[in-house]
Amino acid sequence: MKEAPARIRSTRRRRSAVATAAVATVIVGSAVAVRPASASPSIPTTRPGTDTTMFKGVNWADPRDNYADDRLVLSGLTASDGYQQTYAKASRVISAFRANLGANTVRLPINPYTVDSPAWKSYRGVIDAASDKGFKVILSYWEGTGPRNDGLIDDPAAFWPMWNTVVKAYKHDKQVYFEPMNEPFGYTDTQWADTAAAWLDTYRSVPRDRVFVSGAGYNDHVTSVCADPRLKGTYLSFHLYGYWVDFATYEQWAAGAKERIGDCANRTVADEFGAPMTTGLDYNKPAPDNNYINYIQAFTDTLRELRMGSVYWPGLRTGDSYSMQTLTGAPTRPWLATTNQSGAERLAWAWGAGKPVQPPR
Fold it and tell me: Tens digit of pLDDT for each residue in 288-314?
């Protein structure tokens, strides 16, 4: 399978994901991670509305693709930054996401090395800056690298304390949303639903409409989690990438996306999708023989048609050809520039803005 080198993640890849066929069987992982015995008091369950267009966002990533066995340091930040420095830099990056793209949402990675360490104080500067700017913030757990990069929770003994800390810090901030795990491909559909249900049962104080339950596999289908009554009232997160297949037509990409989403669009946010932005592709111009152009045009049309929110991967990641933004200015006062205007226009189109940027098909 053809792969996008700058986007490729660690040692595992979506080799079995095929956009125009049934979802491949994921690696069968271990049973549900054991959760703490105590649970938070329950509160009335709320539910998402009739669509998810309120989420117009981008991912802000560590240069290592968020897979790390140590603390996460987002692109443009440094490990030596304290809270105030982090807050100031993050405020500028968040403002640039809004100014350049019209974004109102940012998705950020977390892991135990970041949360249960002195690094947490400074990392909170990113979350606080985004929330203070009025952004919605999606916090998602990323696993480690090497043998840990298996689609399973790395260490339940560290996973649950991490979430205890994060939930305690942000459960009262209505701008902050919680995604228990990114791409849980090591679990079967049933095992992943059990794990997500255990998270919800543990953190009953978190309103369900502030939780994103990842689709099964590589977040590549949401139909199984959507059908599970234990997960009712949550948002669902969906991922789709052009390099999952060597080639598909516009029509095949649109049909494949809809098959994976099923009748769950009103709860689903595509919180990862992306394509090369620094290679000169024009996503406004139809090019039926180009897989990436077919994919971006079809998927952004589908997102708009289904009234689904989306969070592009990545808004900012140093060294990633998919990055929609690149750092400019002094390191202490970062700003951003758009890497591909046609890509930015397609993203705005997916969010319901703008006008058609291609001839009718």
Answer: 999 999 999 999 999 999 999 999 999
Element (H, E) at 304: helix 291-306
Measured between alpha carbons, how far is 167 from 163 in angstroms, rounded to an integer?
Answer: 6
136 φ, ψ (degrees, to nearest 5): -80, 140
Long-range contacts of residues 357-360, Cβ cutoff 8 Å, at least 24 apart: 357/284, 358/284, 358/285, 358/286, 358/297, 359/286
- Residues 110-139: tens digit of each pLDDT: 999 999 999 999 999 999 999 999 999 999
Asked whether 252 and 221 are in contact (CB, 8 A), the reply is no
Q: Is there a contact between 63 and 10 (Cβ–Cβ < 8 Å)?
A: no
> What average pLDDT does range 271-275 have in this prediction?
98
CATH T-level fold of 56-350: TIM Barrel (3.20.20)
Domain regions of the chain by residue span: 56-350
Report yes or no on whether pTM surpasses 0.70. yes
